[in-house]
Amino acid sequence: CCLVYTSRQIPQKFIVDCSETSPQCTKPGPLTKRGRQICADPNKKWVQKYISELKLIA
C-alpha cells in the first residue's frame, strides 16, 4: 500500500514497470523505478500516460 504519493513528476525514462496495489489499500498506485517502488497518484495525467505506455509495451 502507498502511504504517500511522490510530490513531483518522475522522468519517464526511470519508470520500468507498474503494478496495482491491493483493493484494501486506501492509496493505490505504485510504479517501479529502477529496482525500487515509488507511489504516484493514479489520477495525475502524467501517471496515466506512463501506465498507458507501459501497457502498450507489455
From TrEMBL:
Localization (cell): Secreted
Statement: the UniProt record of this protein carries the keyword Signal: yes
InterPro entries associated with the record: Chemokine_b/g/d, Chemokine_IL8-like_dom, Interleukin_8-like_sf
CDD domains: Chemokine_CC
Keywords linked to the UniProt accession: Chemotaxis, Cytokine, Disulfide bond, Inflammatory response, Secreted, Signal
A molecular-function term among this protein's GO annotations: CCR chemokine receptor binding
A GO cellular component entry from the record: extracellular space
Major subcellular location class: secreted
Annotated GO biological process: antimicrobial humoral immune response mediated by antimicrobial peptide; chemokine-mediated signaling pathway; inflammatory response; positive regulation of cell migration
Recorded superkingdom: Eukaryota
Membrane spanning stretches: none
Protein name: Chemokine interleukin-8-like domain-containing protein
Organism: Papio anubis (Olive baboon)
